[in-house]
Specification:
The chain is α+β, with helices and mostly antiparallel strands. It is built from 4 helices and 7 strands. Strands 1, 2, 3, 4 and 5 form a 5-stranded antiparallel β-sheet that branches. The chain has a two-stranded antiparallel sheet with strand order 6-7. It is globular, with a radius of gyration of 15 Å. Bound molecules: 7-(2-hydroxyethyl)-8-mercaptoguanine (GSY). 7-(2-hydroxyethyl)-8-mercaptoguanine (GSY) binds at residues 9, 43-48, 54, 56, 89, 95, 97, 123.
């Protein structure tokens, strides 16, 4: 089965509501079907640390949309939920990042898949391992996968 994974994040209240609304907007799209949702994890900000904690999660979906068509839908949901791109890595109402699109590799000025920073982000890897424990991620060794899978059990928030 071919799968697509999207990471979601929010650190402007009401964070959980923004996550749930984004998922419902994705699932309401006629060409998108959400097939799995991770738990929601509260995570300390990485990169730009002078901001509030995030709520993060990952969803698995199937779609007939192309990667760029899916990106257009994600960006329209971000706009609809009030995403303002003031500070590049700053606070946001909602963030939707395409992580993996089947086994496609794509590098354009709009979209790079697999997501170029997913391998260094526990706030992505832990929810992803929770819903796709057997996913083979190039560049990962088994010990990392086992550690991340253990963490995903311990750190679930709800
Ligand atoms: N914990 C955490 N830190 C982050 N830093 C940035 S930028 N972001 C936005 C990622 O696109 C996050 C995030 O979603 N979660």
């Amino acid at each position: 089965m071919r799968h697509i994974y999207i990471a979601l994040g929010s650190n402007i209240e009401p964070r959980k509501q923004y996550l749930l609304e984004a998922i419902s907007l994705l699932d309401a799209h006629e060409a998108i079907m959400i097939t799995q949702k991770s738990a929601i994890y509260q995570t300390a900000p990485v990169g730009y640390t002078e901001q509030a904690d995030f709520l993060n999660m990952v969803v698995e979906l199937n779609t007939s949309l192309s990667p760029l068509e899916l990106l257009d839908v994600c960006q329209s949901i971000e706009r609809k939920l009030g995403r303002k791109r003031e500070i590049r890595f700053g606070p946001r109402t909602i963030d939707l990042d395409i992580l993996l699109y089947h086994d496609e590799n794509k590098k354009t000025d709009r979209l790079i898949i697999p997501h170029p920073r997913m391998h260094e982000r526990a706030f992505v890897l832990i929810p992803l391992a929770e819903i796709a424990p057997d996913l083979f991620i190039p560049g990962w060794d088994k010990s990392v996968v086992a550690m991340v899978r253990d963490l995903s059990v311990k750190d679930k928030k709800d």
